[in-house]
Amino acid sequence: RAGAVASGAEALELLLDSERVYEDLEYALRGPKVLRAAGGASGDLAAPLAPAGATEAQFAYNVSIAVRAWDPRLTLCSEFRGIAWGGRLTCIGQYFHPMFFPALAEKQAKIEQDCRALFSDPVVQTVVGKLGGNCIVDFAWLGPGEVMIIELNPFDGVCLGTFPASTGLFLWDEPADRAVMKGEAAFEMRVRDKPLDTPALKAQCNPAWRRIIYGIGGPTGRPPGPCFKGRCEAPGWRGAEEAEPFRS
Predict the structure, then answer these.
(1) Which of 16, 92, 184, 206 could be joined to 227 by an S-S link, Cβ 3.0–4.6 Å?
(2) How does pLDDT run across 24-75, given as a tens digit for each residue?
């Protein structure tokens, strides 16, 4: 619940306290400007770039704030990350992949079926097409026949989304995994089938959070950040990932 707020003031405080938001704003400041849309907002990823000579009132930074309702049904074991390549969903993996959830084994087939069914929806297909057919899709499985998409993020096979932080139980640098992710091998869904031992679990944790949780390691003088933090990927959906030490 660290990402849930009840007012604009609380939301602003959360955003201003986020290292990741700070970095994303830096990227926006250095990036190209877009023409301001009618009504004074930007927020349209398809907005044309502002032409040279545009006045301050005519352009906006290519960044927006997404606000979503807090949904307590979204638990750690309910989230799954899919990879789409060439417009097809090629694989799905457990989102919080360092953690072991025994109940997932008996539900895995139904989770796969429901996520693939939602991905085939024409509306979802249209959005995936706007991302060039290649993207990362985060699903929340809330029960049989009830699944929702949390967000879609770019995935270009070069930098965007290729870090282990993004791909979880699939590794882009492993040829066999890459073949699955690119649809060159059969579709796979993966969940962790046994717990990590304690040293391995500690190694998965962000160094700053490792110091807080376990009292060992971790740099000083740097605010805590999300686990497996790697740039070249879009920010997470909750906007306060620093509060989630094992979130990729």
Answers:
(1) 206
(2) 888 888 877 776 655 545 444 445 555 666 565 556 777 778 888 888 899 9
